[in-house]
Amino acid sequence: DADVTQTPRNRITKTGKRIMLECSQTKGHDRMYWYRQDPGLGLRLIYYSFDVKDINKGEISDGYSVSRQAQAKFSLSLESAIPNQTALYFCATSDPTSGYTDTQYFGPGTRLTVL
Amino acid sequence: AQSVSQHNHHVILSEAASLELGCNYSYGGTVNLFWYVQYPGQHLQLLLKYFSGDPLVKGIKGFEAEFIKSKFSFNLRKPSVQWSDTAEYFCAVGVYGGSQGNLIFGKGTKLSVKP
Prior knowledge:
The complex is a heterodimer of chains A (115) and B (115).
Chain A: E1 4-7, E2 10-13, E3 19-25, E4 31-38, E5 42-51, E6 54-57, E7 64-70, E8 73-78, E9 87-94, E10 104-106, E11 110-114
Chain B: E1 3-6, E2 10-14, E3 19-21, E4 23-26, E5 31-38, E6 45-50, E7 56-58, E8 64-68, E9 73-78, E10 87-95, E11 103-105, E12 109-114
């Protein structure tokens, strides 16, 4: 079974709709992340969470919100989707190691299309 | 702010050719360095990482990377590529003791290997 799962895997929606993307992990990691990937732009960090009570904005948080329901679950919401939020969204987890940034483990991604 | 530069957007090679993908970062302190690979339609997977010690790091599938601190570089190499190496490659940097403990990704290099 996959350690990091994302649902849905694909979603097509319309402008103005509220969308929630979900991420679950069985790795027991405290840290979770949401990225979006756009062609030619690499991965950009949207939000990250170091534990259930710690939520932080990333590079491109405008238009997004998150919820850390439990150590294993981290959801990303688009309150009112717009076409330029069409992208591939990845969830990732990591376990901190003595102040270093440790390896991040990625989910399979959610391809979101906003019409 | 820290940044990561990958020199080539798209590299096209024939099978058995040697590969070197460039990665430079801007940060003067201690860093952790990563190369991730994304095969078509899949999520990011760790190829190799450098935390400390021997600056020549060996990863999976015959890949290696060399950390040259004076050049702020972490170039990825493979002596002989295969068609199955066709993928997008991302360099990422994590800073020691960074406030976020996050990774900063380069924009990626797409590798196409011709059979």
